[in-house]
Amino acid sequence: MRFVVLVLAVLWLPGLTASSASAEPQPRAGSVQPEPATGRIEHLPVLAKEFMVAAAHPLAAMAGYDVLRRGGSAIDAAVAVQMVLNVVEPQSSGIGGGAFMVYWDAKAGRLTSFDGREVSPAAAGPGYFLQPDGTPKSFWEAMAGGRSVGVPGTLRMLEMAHQRYGREPWGRLFDPAIAHAEKGFAISPRLAASIGWAANKGLAAFPEAAAYFFNADGTPKPEGAILTNPALAETFRILARDGADALHQGSIAEAIVAAISATPDNPGVMTLEDLRTYKAKQREPVCAAYRGHDVCGMGPPSSGALTIGQILGMLEHFDLAGIGPSPEAAHLFAEASKLAYADRALYMADSDFVRMPTKGLLDQNYLTIRAQHIRRGAAMEKAEAGNPPWRDASLQAPDTEVERPGTSHFVIFDGEGNAVSMTTTIETGFGSRVMVRGFLLNNELTDFSFRPAVNGRSVANRVEGGKRPRSSMAPTIVLRDGKPVLLIGSPGGSRIIAYVAQAVIGILDWGMDPQAAINIGHVVNRNGATDLEAGTDAADLAGPLTMLGHEVQVRDLNSGLHAIQIGPDGKLVGGADPRREGVVLGD
């Protein structure tokens, strides 16, 4: 089995205006060009000496680059990047959603994480997504409208991190986003395609969103059209001046509650008190040992770090370096994924609300026992959850809900050695479709289980007032000898886990640079069929995996991986996903 990496060369920086370009020497960026056979864009790895940022849109990456160039911190750059993403990639993330960040404090030599996940309104309860007859709503019935909106947390989380680790004034970090919102930006190919897709998924039914994303005749605004968002520019000015309090109370909060309550078919129950009392949290990261490294990420309410840690912990029993990229390696990866996703479905949820075997799930003896279920010559059926060291393992039922991809990821390394890996989301593309003051509100509550119980056993990820829904977001920082060597993460809903784990294997086991590892054709198994990425060499695995007993589906697998590798000499190597529009910029 071969994984082909194409390396081509033309830089795409759409809509780069005078307001976003710097008069200083220009940054190094990933070179890109469409590949004729598949339409994918392939990137060269990017090298830098001191600082680097990789983000999902060139204008967002440029905003972060400018902060780093003038001596700002990784946290400062993260604020600037997120605000520009809210403008130019509104379907994926923004101040109406939530985020997780893993942060390396170089001075203290300490890794920490910040939880800005949305929470459910206090009035929400276990039957929140049940119909009058007790059956669960369909996803699309539940998603569109105010009832799916969780209390947003991204801005509170960024403010908390900035108060601890920022160097530049908070307000200055909004300037690039305000400029792009006022002066306009060109609709990118990805945003245009997303608008076209969402036209048939309820977006046109919401007046404020429809007026922004569609022409007067109801047709989707096309690629290259200039979008301006004066309402968002004004919102950002208020937030730049008054901080996150201005989102969680006052006129903006009142507008959020009013919009959520006013959706005719699916009104929400969020109150001003829900917004006022929201708190971001600083948490200890979850780390798993792998090949002499510590692979660290976000713990509960995210399942990302735990599930990646389980996959890697099981695969540590196999010589992946010797096997190399091959049908056998893909088989082993899919089998370990089945076992890990089975545990995820049963055990993982917001640990502030439910008891969780966090340590037990990564116990090395437990993972050794789980790895013994993997047979080299045959695929297992759907895996059952295991019994980690934890006395309450029999008291829950598995959750079958899957997350939809409407997410973004970026990584940042600053000149002082501080590092950010941050995944940010509004859940499904365009979130709940409810737009307020120029930004979209999330539909994150649909990440909860719609069924509160199965056969008399509670589902850990059931809806409860004030609870954070389980996530698959997996912002990751890999340490070796107590220092960061890799920053990585991806959007992609519940497939995020597989995207990140596979790329980590490419770098740590197969010696690939980050760009080569990102380019690998995806193999994903969420404890069911094995998905293979269409248009890549991964699709060639269909025959060999079918012979081993896998149910195979060849399909588009649209990750958005971004990564920065820190070498022993401190040199930086970055990669951006060819499946999306991101770039890497460095000094």
Features:
single chain, 587 residues, alpha+beta, eight-stranded antiparallel beta sheet, seven-stranded antiparallel beta sheet, 19% strand, disordered N terminus
Structure description:
The chain has about 575 residues and is of the alpha+beta class. The protein is about 30% helix and about 20% strand. The protein is built from 19 helices and 27 strands. The protein has an 8-stranded antiparallel β-sheet with strand order 1-27-5-14-15-6-7-10, with helices on one face. Helix 2 (about 75-90) packs antiparallel against helix 4, helix 12 crosses helix 14 (about 325-345) and helix 12 (about 305-315) crosses helix 16 (about 365-370).
Please outline the helices and strands.
Layout: E1 28-29, E2 32-34, E3 41-43, E4 46-48, E5 52-55, H1 58-69, H2 74-88, E6 98-105, E7 110-116, H3 139-143, H4 154-165, H5 175-183, E8 185-186, H6 189-198, H7 207-213, E9 226-227, H8 230-242, H9 245-248, H10 251-262, H11 272-276, E10 281-283, E11 286-290, E12 293-297, H12 304-315, H13 320-323, H14 327-347, H15 358-361, H16 364-371, E13 396-397, E14 407-413, E15 419-425, E16 435-436, E17 439-440, E18 453-454, E19 457-459, E20 476-480, E21 483-489, H17 496-508, H18 514-519, E22 523-525, E23 530-533, H19 542-547, E24 552-555, E25 562-566, E26 572-576, E27 583-586
Helix pairs in contact: 1-2, 2-4, 2-5, 5-8, 12-14, 12-16, 12-17
Give a quick precis of the structure.
With 587 residues, the chain is an alpha+beta fold. Helices cover 30% and strands 19% of the residues. A hairpin with a 2-residue loop joins strand 18 (453-454) and strand 19.
